[in-house]
């Protein structure tokens, strides 16, 4: 019952603003004051005593760090778009980014290098996905199954609600 009227207020740019995970869908996400205030609350940890943060403070930051990073990226994208439209930000300018050299005509390059008696091509083993497509899943497994391994993933800190099993650290190995 309250969803439609609240949605209409939001669509009209009225009502109360509340920052949170839902902000990534908002058209005002880059320049919303509520979102800025919400994310800048983390700055208070810059002025905390003692010199090191406690576990509860780190947990509070972890709860919002992804939103903070996303907000910072949204600000950068928004500011670039506005600067390209002519808005000037004190201390900033738009410049051409880095680029990578490319051939204008790959066939002509290959021909020119071959004419010098050199091989312009490198031979490379197909990747696993491409090889699976080439052979088919069953044949891939029959022919190459014993030659494939999956290394452990790099440890990553996630919420308790994540379905993956807890990472086994060296410390926990010695505790067992």
Q: What is the N-to-C order of secondary-structure elements (H for helix, E for strand)? A: HHHHHHH
| Overall pLDDT metric | 83
Instruction: Kindly provide the radius of gyration, computed on alpha-carbon positions and rounded to a whole number of angstroms.
Output: 27 Å
Treating each run of at least 4 consecutive H or I residues as one helix, how many helices?
Answer: 7
Structure, described:
This protein is mostly helical. 45% of the residues lie in helices and 0% in strands. It is built from seven helices and no strands. α2 packs antiparallel against α3 and α5 crosses α6.
Q: What features would you highlight for this structure?
A:
single chain, 176 residues, mainly alpha, 45% helix, extended
SSE inventory with pairings:
Layout: H1 3-11, H2 33-40, H3 55-84, H4 106-115, H5 128-135, H6 137-144, H7 170-175
Helix pairs in contact: 2-3, 5-6
Short description:
By secondary structure, this protein is mostly helical. Helices cover 45% and strands 0% of the residues. Helix 2 packs antiparallel against helix 3 and helix 5 packs across helix 6.
């Amino acid at each position: 019952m309250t969803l439609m009227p609240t949605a209409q207020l939001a669509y009209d740019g009225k009502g109360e603003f509340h920052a949170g995970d839902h902000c990534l869908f908002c058209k005002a996400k880059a320049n919303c004051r509520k979102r800025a205030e919400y994310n800048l609350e983390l700055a208070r940890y810059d002025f905390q005593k003692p010199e090191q943060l406690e576990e509860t403070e780190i947990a509070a930051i972890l709860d919002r760090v992804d939103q903070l990073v996303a907000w910072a990226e949204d600000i950068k994208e928004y500011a670039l778009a506005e600067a390209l439209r002519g808005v000037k930000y004190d201390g900033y300018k738009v410049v051409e980014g880095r680029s990578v050299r490319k051939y204008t005509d790959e066939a002509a390059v290959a021909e020119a290098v071959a004419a010098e008696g050199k091989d312009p091509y490198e031979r490379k083993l197909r990747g696993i996905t491409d090889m699976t497509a080439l052979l088919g899943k069953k044949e891939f497994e029959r022919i190459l199954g014993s030659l494939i391994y999956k290394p452990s993933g790099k440890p990553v800190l996630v919420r308790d609600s994540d379905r993956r099993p807890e990472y086994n650290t060296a410390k926990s190995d010695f505790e067992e």
